[in-house]
């Protein structure tokens, strides 16, 4: 897909100065290098990593880090008289491809405006040339995390394929329930359900691996002394994996919500085990899915969006356990990704570069995924006026797509967010989601 590469601004030369982190707003952006109409952009807040007395960033262990400055491409400025971009220094256009092989030639780069702009401040971001994270290879520093997450993502494709082909044992279960005295039909239903429950167990266990992978990515993309946008610039291979995890998560949950056979099969399995336990009968399948495992699986599949719930809980737990890490380091990372996806979806110039619907779905799923994570982590959530995510724009761009593609995503925003019904949520946003 067409997937933007996130670029951060340079550090001011003053002593102890800090780079800016990007957040998403409804304020229009200056015209970018793609020649698109004015789009909505990003602003940010300073990095809140610890510093020593001399202004040198400190590591998490308390040791003073080297005062280095990552190489960044010169940032184009907007000429006030002509309204066109002018490069400050050489900034040749570079091109790449997106996650689905789509054409790509832009990044999101914050503008050097106010040091601490508010959520509705003047323009503070625009699109400019850069590299594509889809082509990024992990650096030596990223390799350990990248390998861990890559192993999970490789298995994710198998999980999706198995879930897509999941047909259930509805016929066998109905016949067994309608004829409780026919042992042949009881055995037939049990034989049909057991391998399906084993498959559901694999799905559940995979969610635990996905949770660990997400935690590793959050640690890598939020650790001091760099701002979230700098991490997305420096660790492009990990940023791509983060997006792929969210794409899988929303894809899995969409399939699960449209397949009632999953809960029907598991409910029949649990009823049969309970009945046999009362009759002092031991079934071979219980050795694979015992009562404790069945209880955990039951809670997992009771959720409308079980994978997304798992990631939301994991993100909340990550923030609560890392009390020395400013919460903005996590929320700015999420809001920046939401901003990029929205701009790509609502700008005709970018949309015209997508050659298949799966590319659009990828972008929409990632956008919805980071919005939900943001809403679970941020104290006031994604729907408040102070949110760095332009929720009206995000909802509108979803509703502009065919309902068959977005109804599941809109339902995820309606039913899996925490702050939609808060008093701080405007009536306009609630009306958009009705």
Topology summary:
Layout: E1 5-6, E2 20-28, E3 40-46, E4 77-78, E5 85-86, E6 96-97, E7 103-104, E8 107-110, E9 125-128, H1 143-164, H2 170-178, H3 183-222, H4 228-234, H5 236-257, H6 261-278, H7 291-302, H8 306-321, H9 327-346, H10 348-351, H11 357-377, H12 391-399, H13 403-415, H14 427-432
Parallel strand pairs: 1-8
Antiparallel strand pairs: 2-3, 4-5, 6-7, 8-9
Helix pairs in contact: 1-3, 1-5, 2-3, 3-5, 3-6, 3-8, 5-8, 5-11, 6-7, 8-11, 9-11, 11-13
Summarize the structure.
The protein has helices at residues 143-164, 170-178, 183-222, 228-234, 236-257, 261-278, 291-302, 306-321, 327-346, 348-351, 357-377, 391-399, 403-415, 427-432; strands at 5-6, 20-28, 40-46, 77-78, 85-86, 96-97, 103-104, 107-110, 125-128. With 434 residues, it is mainly α.
In which order are the strands of the major sheet placed?
Answer: 1-8-9
Compute the number of helices: 14
Order of helices and strands: EEEEEEEEEHHHHHHHHHHHHHH
Question: Helical amount among residues, as a percent range?
Answer: 40-55%
Largest sheet: 3 strands, mixed
Strand proportion: 5-15%
Taken from the alpha-carbon principal axes, the silhouette is: globular
Total DSSP E strands: 9
* First-last Cα distance: 30 Å
Low-confidence stretches: 1-133
Helix/strand/pairing category: mainly alpha
């Amino acid at each position: 897909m067409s997937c933007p590469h996130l670029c951060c601004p340079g550090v001011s030369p003053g002593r102890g100065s800090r780079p800016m982190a990007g957040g998403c707003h409804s304020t229009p952006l200056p015209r970018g290098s793609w020649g698109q109409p004015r789009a909505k952009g990003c602003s940010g807040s300073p990095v809140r990593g610890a510093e020593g007395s001399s202004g040198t960033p400190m590591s998490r262990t308390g040791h003073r880090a080297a005062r280095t400055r990552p190489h960044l491409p010169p940032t184009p400025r907007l000429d006030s008289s002509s309204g066109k971009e002018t490069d400050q220094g050489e900034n040749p256009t570079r091109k790449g491809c997106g996650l689905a092989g789509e054409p790509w030639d832009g990044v999101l780069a914050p503008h050097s405006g106010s040091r601490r702009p508010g959520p509705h401040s003047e323009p503070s971001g625009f699109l400019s040339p850069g590299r594509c994270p889809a082509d990024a290879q992990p650096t030596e520093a990223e390799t350990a995390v990248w390998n861990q997450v890559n192993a999970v993502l490789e298995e994710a494709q198998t999980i999706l394929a198995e879930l897509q082909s999941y047909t259930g044992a509805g016929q066998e279960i109905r016949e067994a329930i309608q004829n409780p005295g026919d042992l042949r039909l009881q055995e037939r239903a049990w034989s049909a359900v057991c391998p399906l429950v084993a498959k559901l167990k694999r799905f559940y266990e995979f969610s635990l691996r996905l949770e660990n992978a997400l935690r590793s990515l959050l640690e890598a993309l939020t650790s001091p002394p760099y701002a979230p946008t700098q991490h997305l610039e420096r660790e492009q291979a990990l940023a791509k994996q983060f997006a792929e995890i969210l794409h899988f998560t929303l894809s899995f949950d969409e399939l699960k919500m449209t397949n009632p056979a999953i809960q029907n099969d598991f409910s029949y399995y649990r009823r049969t085990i309970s009945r046999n336990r009362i009759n002092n009968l031991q079934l071979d399948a219980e050795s694979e899915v015992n009562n404790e495992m069945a209880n955990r699986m039951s809670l997992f599949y009771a959720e409308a969006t079980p994978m997304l719930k798992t990631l939301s809980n994991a993100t909340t737990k990550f923030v609560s356990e890392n009390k020395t890490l400013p919460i903005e380091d996590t929320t700015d990372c999420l809001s920046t990704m939401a901003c990029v996806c929205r701009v790509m979806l609502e700008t005709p110039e970018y949309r015209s570069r997508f050659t298949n619907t799966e590319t659009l779905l990828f972008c929409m799923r990632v956008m919805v995924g980071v919005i939900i994570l943001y809403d679970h982590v941020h104290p006031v959530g994604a729907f408040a006026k102070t949110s760095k995510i332009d929720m009206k724009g995000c909802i509108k761009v979803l509703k502009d797509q065919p309902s068959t593609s977005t109804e599941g995503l809109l339902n995820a925003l309606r039913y899996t967010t925490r702050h939609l019904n808060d008093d701080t949520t405007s009536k306009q946003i609630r009306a958009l989601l009705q």
